[in-house]
Amino acid sequence: MRPLRGRGGRLPDDLLTRYALALDFSDADLAQRLAQVRAHWRDRVRSAAWAGFTTSVYRAFLREDRHLRREHGDALARMSWWRARHEERAAAVSAQVAELAQVLGAHFGDLGLVTPGQLEALRRAVGPLAPREVDAALAEAGVRTVVPLDLPKTPGLPDGSFRRLKELLRDAEVTSVPALLHGELTGFALVTGFRSTPPRPDGLGADAVRAALERSGGAARDALELVSTAVDLRRLALYHLVDDVRRFRESGAPAGALLRVLRQSGLEEGEARHVVVSVLSEAGAPEVEATGLAKVTALLADGRLVAAQQALVGITDAEEAAAATAAVDRHAAQVRELREAARRALERGAEDDARRQLADAARLASDDGAIAAEARRIPVSPVADLTARSDGLGVRLSWRARPDHDAGTRYRVVRRAGRAPEHPGDGDVVAEGTATSAVDTAVPGGRTAGYAVFAAEPDGAWSRPAGATVEVLPPVHEVRLAVRDGAVEGRWEVHPDAVGVDVVRRGPSGEVPVPTDGLTAFRDTTVDTRADYLLVARYRLPDGTEARADAVTVRHTASSPPPVTSLDGRRSGRELLLSWEWPDGVQQAEVRWTRGAVGGRRRVTRQQYEDEGGCRVDAGPGAVDVRVTAVVGELRSSPAELTTGGPAQVGYRVVRRHRLFGATARILLHSDHPVPECELVVVVAPGRRMPREPGDGEVVHHAVHRIDGPVAVTVDLPRRGPFWLRCFASTSGVELIDPPNSQLEVP
Fold it and tell me: Are 586 and 606 in contact, with CB atoms under 8 Å apart?
C-alpha cells in the first residue's frame, strides 16, 4: 500500500495482486475473496485512524472497482476473465520492466542510486507497473532507492566572504575545507558527521583551525581566517562541495561527471553517490542530458512526440531501438485515437467535446503544430434559442450563448430573403459584435426574411448557423393620443415599406373607420371616452396581395389605464422572467428594475410578451426591485411592484499545505450576507479536466455549514498531481463562486 501513496489515484493494472487472487481459485473462491477485499477497502476509507496515510489509495481502489463492474459486468464473477486478463498483461509487463531497467541504467547506472521521486517519474513514463515489477527493474539495472539528503542551501558565511574563500582555496591549490585544515587526506565523510582517513582527532573544530593557522601562510592562511568565522564548519565544508556540483549540473554535466568532481575532492564514495543523486532530485534543477531510450522516454513524458520520433534515428543499439520504437508507437496511437474521436464529435455536432479531445492530444504531442492548428479550426457551438419577430421599424433578434462561449465570443447576424443563410457570407450582414441581441431596421417590409447567427472566438472559425425565418409585418408603434379642441389626435411610427394604416374606432356603437392623414396620423372629432382605436399596418407582398400586421389597440381617455395584476418573477441565474395579467385594451408596458445603485428599463409590447412567454430581463445577482406600469399612448397606470431575491452567493478560496505525512487544503468560505444553510460538497478529480459536477470526482467532504462569518474546512489531498479540487453547493438558492483556476488545479 505505501508505495502507491502519492500517485494521484493512478494505480498499477496488476489486478490479481490488487484483489489478492490466485490463478487456481474457483468461481466460488473468487466471489468470497472479492467480497472480503471490497469490504476491507470500505472499512479503511471510513476509518479515521487511517486518514492521511493510505486512505486515498483505498478510495482509488473503490473508484476503479466501480469502473470495472460497469465495464465488464457479470464477467468479473468468473475466474476465466481474470486469467485471460492476467495473461494479456504478462505479455506486456516484461517489455515495460526491461524498458524501465534500461532507462534507470541510462540515468542512474553510474550512481547505482535513485530517489523515490525520480523513480516514480520514470515509472509514469513507462507505464502502470506494480511495486514488485518496479523492484524487478531496479534489480536488473543494479540501482537501489535512497531518500534524498537535505543538503545545505547556504554556506553559513556572507556571500562575498564565501566567494573570496573559493578564490583563496584555488590559489592555495586545496580542493576542500577538510584538506585546508588537515592537509592531504585519503578520504573523508561529511554528511552525518566528520571522519577521515587517516583519522584526525581535532575533526573540524576550533583546535584544528588554530593548528592549521600556526603552520600555514599565504592564501591558505587567509582562507583559514575566513573559515574561522563560520559557526558550523561541517556545513561550510559540505556546502563548498555541493555548490560546485550544482553549478556543473546547471551546465548540463551528466551524473558521472558530477561524481568525479566529488571523488577528486576526497569525499567517500558512498557519500559522493548519495550527494549527486540528491542534487539531481532538487526542484528546479535542469534535466541531465539523456540519450537513446532514456531520451525518448523523457521526451514522451514531456509530451513531445515529434521530438521523440526524431530521436529514434540516433539509437544504434537494436534492443534499445525496439523498446523506444514501441514506446513511441503507443504514444502516437493515443494521439491518433484522440484526433479520431475529435473528428467523430465534430461530425455529430459536438464541438465542445471535439475541442476537449484535441486538447488532450495536444498535451501528448505539444510540439505537433498540426494538432494545435486543427484545434483552432474547431468552431464554438452554435447559439441557442434564436428568436426573430417583427418589432418597431424592423425585426428584433435575440439568442442565448452556449457554455463554451465567453466574453470574447463574437456573433454575426446575416439576413437573406426567403430562407435562412447557410454560411457567414450567404446574405447581408446585419450586425456583428459581442451582444446577444440585434435589431434589423433595414429589412424590407412585406417579405419573408431568413436570419442566421454565427458565433466565433477571436480569430477563430465561425460556428454552424442557428437559423430562423419571419414574415416581416411590423405593427405600428410609439402610438401617441391626445384630445385637442374637441377631437382625438393620433400619431405613430410605422415601417417605411407599409402601404397604408387602417384606423378603426371601436365603441358601444360598433366599429367605425377613421380617415388617416397619410401613414402616421389621424384626427377624429367624435370624442367617446369609452372608445378604443385599432391601428393596423398593411404591406404589399411580392405576389401583389396585401398582408396585415398585428393590430395595435389604444384608448384616448385622459384617465390612467388600469394597472397590470398578478405580477410574479422567476429566476434562472442572472435572468429574471416576469409575468403578469394584462388589462383589457393595454398593449404596452414599461418595466423598470433596480438592484442597489444599478438598474434598467424596458418597454415591452403585448406581442413581445406572448412571444417570449413573459418578459425576460438581465437582472444580475441579488435582490431586485421591479415596477411594471401599463402604458397607453402618453398615459401610464399606477405601477405594480415586486421584490425578488437572488441566489445567496458564497465565495471561497483554497490554501494548499504540505505536511510530513501528506498534503491538505484549507477551504475558506465567505459571504456578504448570512447563509443559514449551505450543503457543501468538496470533490477531488484526478487528471487535467475540471469537474463540472460532484460525480466527476471523489467526494472528500460533504456537510452542511452555516455561513455567518468566515468558515474554514480542511480536507486531505493526493500527494501528487495532476488533479482538481472544486466545491459544489447542493442547497437550493445558494450559488458558489469559484476562485481562480490556479487555486483549484494542481499540475
Answer: yes
CA 45 to chain centre: 28
Distance of CA 703 to the CA centre of its chain: 25
b/e per residue 383-414 (b: at least 16 CB within 10 A) = beebbbbbbbbbbbbbbebbebbeeebbbbbb
Of 359, 355, 409, 417, nearest to 383 (Cα)?
409
Q: At 8, is the pLDDT very low, low, confident or very high (cuts 50, 70, 90)?
A: very low
Name the one residue in this structure whose C-alpha cell is 592531504: 184
Q: How far apart are CA 702 and CA 368, in angstroms?
A: 42
Dump pLDDT digits (tens) for 427-458: 999 999 999 999 998 889 989 999 999 999 88
Report the interhelical angle of 27-46 vs 55-72 (nearest 10°). 140
Residue 127: the pLDDT is 64
377/394 Cα distance (integer angstroms): 35
pLDDT at 91: 66
* Residues facing residue 547 across a β-bridge: 539
Rounded distance between C-alpha atoms, residue 209 and residue 228, angstroms: 7
Q: At what angle do helices 233-250 and 255-265 cross, to 10 degrees?
A: 150
Cis bond before residue 694 (omega within 30° of 0): no
Residue 447 C-alpha cell reads as: 417579405
d(CA 569, CA 579): 6
- DSSP secondary structure string for all residues of 109-178: TTTTEE-HHHHHHHHHHH----HHHHHHHHHHHT-EE-PPP---SS-SS-HHHHHHHHHHHHHTT--SHH
Cell readout for 197 is: 582517513
Rounded to two decimals, the pTM is: 0.36
Contact 552, 477 (CB under 8 A): yes
Q: How confident is the model at residue 604 (pLDDT cuts 50, 70, 90)?
A: very high
Return d(Cα 512, Cα 516) in angstroms, integer.
13
Residue carrying the nine cell digits 437582472: 619
Q: What's residue 312's pLDDT?
A: 86
H helix or E strand, kind and range, residue 602: strand 598-605
Q: What's residue 363's pLDDT?
A: 83
| In contact, 688 and 10? CB cutoff 8 Å | no
Q: What is the pLDDT of residues 73-90, one digit of tens each?
A: 888 899 998 888 887 777
In the chain, the largest separation of any two C-alpha atoms, in whole Å, equals: 133
The model's pLDDT over 108-141, given as tens digits with 9 standing for 90+, comes to: 888 888 888 877 777 766 666 777 778 888 888 8
